[in-house]
Structure formats: C-alpha cells, structure tokens
Design goal:
The longest helix has about 30 residues. The termini are close together. This protein is of the alpha+beta class and about 190 residues long. It is built from six helices and six strands; from the N terminus they run βααβαααββββα. Helix content is about 35%, strand content about 25%. A six-stranded antiparallel β-sheet has the order 1-2-6-5-4-3, covered by helices on one side.
Length: about 190
C-alpha cells in the first residue's frame, strides 16, 4: 500500500469535525496514507506520526529540506517567539466544542505542532509561525474489506503576502519530495 495524493473532494465529502472550526482556512492538500487497520489501530497510526521527525529521515532530500526550513526560520525569524500560537494567532482550541476540547490527544514529539483533539476517527494538530497558521488532520476512513484506511489533510491560513509567497514557493517541493518520501517512510514504519 502506498500513499497518494487525493482530490480535496475525498476529504470534504466526509463529515469531519475539523471542518466546523476551519471555515476560514484553505484546504491545501489531501493524501491517502499508507495504512490499513482495524477499529482499535488508529491510535497506533497517531503515535507513529507523533514520533516522526522528517529532519532525521533516511531520505537525504527530505531531511535536507526540513533542516533548511528550520535554519531559514531561525535566520529570518519565521519561528521566533511571538510568531506562533497564543501570540500572533489564537489557538483553534478556543473554537472547539466542549466534547472535542476534552480529548486533546498527543502532540508531536519533534514537529512544532500542538494537539487540538483526538477522536476514534480523527486527530488534528496545529502550528503557527510568521508565514502561516496550519492544521494537519488525520482521518480514519472505512475500507471496502471491513477495515480502515486513513487520510491526511492539510489546512492553511497564510499570513499576508509573505505567507502566500511562502506557500507558493514550497508547493513543488511538497509534491515532488516531501509528501512522496514521507509516505514511503510512513509505509515502512507502519509495515504497510
């Protein structure tokens, strides 16, 4: 099983709770994840993603792109204190209904994301910096064999012209290097 890019309709056709709180965000990307599991296996997928560090990837192009991004963020101040959640932008946790606020789920160990919520079918994490406010959403979807597959959706709200230019600049890298190599690495980690 391999990950592959999906049309946005594959995500918006489902009744995801994330859509209730991201009405002012743009759905940037949707990918099928290289994962299949049973009813209780979604937590393992979440834990695997939460532990993942692309800057330490075995894929040198992927690792190099993430290291370059972190270095540029440091030099240009994109990730400086005051540019993230709670400072430049309010966390989306403030928008959550009470039932979702009570189920935060894990935050990634390395990546600069904070968990919003986790349910039996969804996990949403958010990040913000000088360029954008973004959400990574994993959703468990039924598979034809009675099991489940998963989708990853990326929502963004660019921060002005800098954010729009940044998102346009990284788009080819996301599609040609980042997502395909991450999907292969995830398939290996998940035994898919």
């Amino acid at each position: 099983m391999t990950g592959r890019r999906l049309p946005n309709s594959a995500h918006v056709s489902r009744p995801w709770r994330i859509r209730e709180i991201t009405t002012d965000f743009r759905l940037e990307d949707v990918w099928r994840l290289p994962w299949a599991g049973g009813p209780g296996d979604f937590a393992h997928l979440i834990d695997t993603v939460a532990e993942y560090d692309p800057a330490q990837s075995a894929s040198w192009p992927l690792a190099a792109l993430f290291r370059l991004r972190w270095k540029l963020g440091e030099i240009l101040g994109w990730d400086a204190p005051g540019t993230g959640l709670g400072d430049r932008v309010a966390t989306l946790r403030e928008r959550l209904p009470d039932d979702l606020r009570a189920t935060p789920g894990p935050s990634p160990r390395v990546l600069p994301f904070t968990s919003l919520y986790q349910t039996e079918d969804e996990w949403a994490i958010e990040s913000a910096n000088q360029t954008m406010h973004g959400i990574l959403h994993l959703g468990r979807v039924p598979a034809g064999d009675g099991g489940f597959g998963a989708q990853m959706a990326i929502y963004v709200k660019p921060n002005g012209l800098l954010g729009m230019a940044y998102m346009a600049l990284i788009k080819p890298f996301r599609y040609l290097v980042v997502y395909p190599r991450m999907m292969r690495e995830m398939a290996h980690r998940l035994g898919a």
